[in-house]
């Protein structure tokens, strides 16, 4: 009888010890999980739906190995009236290709019927908005682009090839405040190698601001404004103001917008816009983006593409 009592006591103590060990084990696992979470960095994604806000670039890049085919249209101003179907009888178009060399570095080129321009750019993402172990409040990208006006410049004697080149340098600073709201600012410098009149500056300095507000899972409204400093403004020009709607459907992203800018390169819509909203100089336009995976279609690229708000 005494021997049975001893066995029961030993078994009870052993069970208690095992339970205590289990509790301690869970505690250790919980502490390890908290330590891992403390060292985890959460990066913000899909600040904007595509790499373009409306006319200008957004802080978004296409992923590595992703080719983005863009078609942009700008119709004549609605002030043309019913005779010109409120501008729909005439349009300018830009066709462009953007490619992601890495997840941070992308390049692109395009051709515009407006002033027969050819353009190219390089964009690099310097910083990514994040929280957690590494806290970064904004996403920052730097953009450098060059534009070539292929129309002969008859106002300049003995014009050289470089006389038709224009350059743009931008710092894109964006923040995603919530799943629905994003804002970015765009300090900009545009340089032209030669001017046609002494009253024209070689450099245009502007500050742009733009934003996006989602109103449903696949639809958002956008706005974009560029303020050119008065002492760096071209004579007779206006500041560019645009409003738009982004619609994601299947493998396409449609961007529908109204703007007082006809051009689709930084030089034309930032420095050379001459339309006035109050006079009906409003151009309806749209951008269509279609993306493709070049090379091996790995799951990582697909996931990044979907997180950026674009599907294929």
Helix content: 10-25%
* CA-based shape: globular
Mean model confidence by pLDDT: 83
Number of domains: 2
Low-confidence stretches: 18-22, 306-312
Structural class: alpha+beta
CATH class of the largest domain: Mainly Beta
Tell me what the CATH architecture of the largest domain is. Answer: Beta Barrel
* Main beta-sheet annotation: 12 strands, antiparallel, barrel
DSSP E strands, number? 14
Radius of gyration: 28 Å
Strand content: 35-45%
CATH topology of the largest domain: Porin
In spatial order, strands of the major sheet run 2-3-4-5-7-8-9-10-11-12-13-14
**How many angstroms separate the termini?**
78 Å
Fold blueprint:
Elements: H1 2-38, E1 41-43, E2 66-77, E3 91-100, E4 105-112, E5 117-127, E6 130-132, E7 139-149, E8 165-176, E9 181-192, E10 203-214, E11 219-228, E12 240-249, E13 252-259, H2 266-271, E14 283-293, H3 299-307
Antiparallel strand pairs: 1-6, 2-3, 2-14, 3-4, 4-5, 5-7, 7-8, 8-9, 9-10, 10-11, 11-12, 12-13, 13-14
Account of the protein in words:
The chain has helices at residues 2-38, 266-271, 299-307, and strands at residues 41-43, 66-77, 91-100, 105-112, 117-127, 130-132, 139-149, 165-176, 181-192, 203-214, 219-228, 240-249, 252-259, 283-293. The chain starts with a helix and ends in a 5-residue tail after the last helix. The strands form two sheets. A twelve-stranded antiparallel beta barrel has the order 2-3-4-5-7-8-9-10-11-12-13-14. Strands 1-6 form a two-stranded antiparallel sheet. The radius of gyration is 28 Å and the shape is globular. The chain has three helices and 14 strands. The chain folds into two domains: 1-39; 44-307, Porin (Beta Barrel). The relative contact order is 0.17. It is 17% helix and 43% strand. It is an alpha+beta fold.
């Amino acid at each position: 009888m005494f021997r049975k009592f001893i066995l029961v006591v030993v078994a009870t103590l052993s069970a208690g010890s095992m339970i205590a060990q289990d509790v301690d084990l869970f505690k250790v696992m919980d502490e390890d999980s908290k330590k891992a979470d403390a060292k985890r960095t959460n990066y913000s994604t899909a600040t904007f739906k595509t790499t373009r806000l409306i006319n200008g670039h957004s802080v978004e890049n296409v992923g590595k190995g992703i080719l983005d085919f863009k078609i942009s249209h700008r119709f004549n101003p609605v002030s043309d009236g019913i005779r010109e179907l409120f501008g729909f009888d005439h349009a300018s178009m830009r066709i462009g290709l953007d490619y992601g060399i890495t997840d941070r570095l992308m390049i692109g080129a395009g051709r515009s019927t407006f002033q027969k321009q050819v353009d190219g750019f390089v964009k690099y993402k310097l910083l990514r908005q994040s929280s957690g172990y590494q806290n970064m409040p904004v996403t920052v990208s730097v953009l450098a682009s060059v534009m070539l006006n292929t129309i002969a410049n008859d106002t300049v004697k003995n014009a050289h090839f470089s006389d038709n080149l224009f350059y743009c340098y931008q710092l894109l600073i964006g923040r995603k405040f919530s799943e629905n709201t994003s804002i970015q600012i765009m300090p900009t410098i545009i340089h032209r190698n030669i001017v046609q009149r002494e009253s024209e500056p070689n450099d245009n300095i502007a500050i742009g601001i733009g934003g996006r507000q989602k109103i449903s899972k696949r639809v958002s409204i956008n706005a974009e404004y560029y303020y050119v400093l008065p002492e760096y403004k071209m004579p007779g020009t206006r500041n560019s103001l645009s409003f738009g709607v982004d619609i994601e459907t299947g493998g396409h992203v449609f961007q529908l917008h109204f703007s007082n800018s006809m051009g689709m390169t930084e030089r034309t819509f930032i420095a050379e816009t001459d339309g006035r909203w109050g006079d009906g100089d409003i151009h309806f336009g749209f951008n269509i983006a279609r993306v493709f995976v070049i090379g091996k279609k790995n799951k990582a690229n697909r996931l990044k593409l979907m997180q950026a708000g674009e599907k294929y």
